[in-house]
Amino acid sequence: MAFYTSISGLSGAQTELSTLANNIANVGTNGFKRSRVSFGDIISNSPLQAPSRTIGSGTSVRAVAQQFNQGPIESSDSSLDLAISGQGFFTVKSGIGGNEVSFTRNGGFSVNQERYVVDASGRRLQLFPTTTDGSIMSTDLASTISARLPLTSGVPQATSSIRLSVNLPADAQIIPNKPIYTPLNPYVFNPEDPATFNNSTSTTVYDSLGNPLAANIYYVKTSVPTALDPFHRWTAHVVVNGNELTVAGVAGIPMVFDTTGTLTDPVTPIAYDAFSPGSGGQAMALAVDHGIATTQQSGGFARATIEQDGFPTGQLESIAVDSAGTLRASFTNGEIQTLGKVAVAMFSNPQGLKQIGDASYVVTPDSGVALTGEAGRNGIGSILSGSLERSNVDLTIELVGLIAAQRNFQANAKAMETDTTLLQTIINLRQ
Asked: How far, in Å, CA of 331 to CA of 344, rounded?
């Protein structure tokens, strides 16, 4: 009898050694949960046997249960590295059609070639669909969507107006006459020749396709106050993508300042003639508004403000996940899209989950159904972006347990050896 009792002890010790070895092997696996072996003694009962003479028949492994206490959380450089501070599991889907649902604490996600947010096994992170303001529409598992990052956002808008304010230097010199004259101007303006203008400023405008175009505004001083004309006069030339803009076919818009340096004309936006931007986009018509803040004062040329109302198609610039799991994408045109909220699930008995590898689990009758909800509410942990949950394996504890399991194995082997020796002695007595 002792022989078989020792065999059960050896089997149990072997199971514990294997479990401890697996824990140690996964000390560096993100989201891994250590396992613990639970044993129970074996008793053979007989109605004719007195309780005081009952001898156990060994041990058996009752359970190898994972311990779901939280592992240490470490910072990372990726906003798609996620950790749950508290209870809960990330929901991921894989397989044909993406219908095989599994759950994991390993939040090391990245983006694949199809722009889906996936884990190391290629399973797609699931999101609860939301409204534009971030409110969850449904927390049912059947309604979750796979997280996918868009490359672009929005429809481009052609620039229709430029608003700016500048200070033109009061002591600027009048541009001297050029040897070539035109009927409308005493000289020929040339944006490539700095000698034909006093100052300039620039900005970027956009055509109907969202293509960026360089817009330059050049300022030319044409006269100073006289007894007959007590005003400072300038001319503003607007050049977009190499095209000088005109008003009623005339290039150059006069700007008039009084003796205090206040702009008196124009005081309303100037609407320029439509022109072809030469970039493939539709014809554009710009209005330029210098506003009442444009002055001619002492000091150098300075641009206080410049704004334009066009924008290109936005390119994905960054992503962010907040503590509630809201996944947002930011684009170069300033637009921010809410893509959804990270789907988090809880279980009434997480130790009933079935391991499938890669620190992932699937539902079983013992675990109960997944209880899904928003991170940070109803007992579900909050999401930490730029963080990873490490394995909850304590190497010191595992090594001590390994030594104890080894001693246990050796002791059971010794008991078996002793029983074998006794049997051999009995056999020798019969000879």
From this structure: 27
